[in-house]
Amino acid sequence: MSYFTHNGCQLHYEEYGHGAPVVLVHGLGSSTRDWEYQIPDLAAQYRVIALDVRGHGRSDKPSERYQISDFAGDVLALLDHLRLPQVHLVGISMGGMIGFQLGVDNPERLKSLCIVNSGPEVKAKSLRDWLEIGKRWSLSRLLSLETIAKGLGRLLFPKPEQGELRRKIEERWPQNDKRAYLASLDAIIGWGVRERLSLISCPTLVVTADRDYTPVAQKEAYVRELPDARLLVIEDSRHATPMDQPQAFNSSLLAFLAEVEQVAPNR
């Protein structure tokens, strides 16, 4: 385990393997542990760096408002700490939002970007959107983390053979700091950088599960707004694709990274 300090906040990260650096950024309520099915495969060919953003995992949980730009600042500070001019970045859900934020603010630091089950904005555009966001905001405050964990486990991993994955969620989610969890949720709601997507010049792989929270069509729409992006749909998967379809996800990500590395000298 390694730590560094950014703006008075101690942040935890882990490193594995050697080669071109690949940074993994988790989602809301998660941590470095949720990349357990990716790290061994990636570390066989790359230098893998997994970060706990503020408010999560083994990192500090300062009592303040969080913003997606704060999380992106944590990632940027990590790159500076490790003296990495450019990296491949992989982000899931909130981690994908962090990737988008870093991509529009500091595009020169990304060699490639992989966005998993995420989007460049979380803004209500209809009554249904307002109701869904309001429901999640309210339930997150009313329910205990243990109750949320059980519901989330059933939602993400509904199959009988996915009992071990459900157990992981039920065990890990309640370990979150409730205040930091809610502050992170608040940071997501209303955030957006969609109008700046043209600034992301690096090759971008957008991965979506066929049964993600948001429809594939939403990802298709914003992929068309990115300068150099492609969409990959992974079948029989929900929001936690790296966990419920690790082989399909890993092989696709490795192929993408190899392609980017091959053409990088000519870019």
UniProtKB/TrEMBL annotation:
Keywords: Hydrolase. This is Alpha/beta fold hydrolase. SUPFAM superfamilies: alpha/beta-Hydrolases. Coiled coil: none annotated. One of its GO terms (molecular function) is hydrolase activity. The keyword Hydrolase applies. One of its GO terms (cellular component) is membrane. InterPro entries: AB_hydrolase_1, AB_hydrolase_fold, AB_hydrolase_sf. Signal peptide: none annotated. Residues 21-136 form the AB hydrolase-1 domain. It comes from Pseudomonas xionganensis. It holds the Pfam family Abhydrolase_1. It comes from the Bacteria.
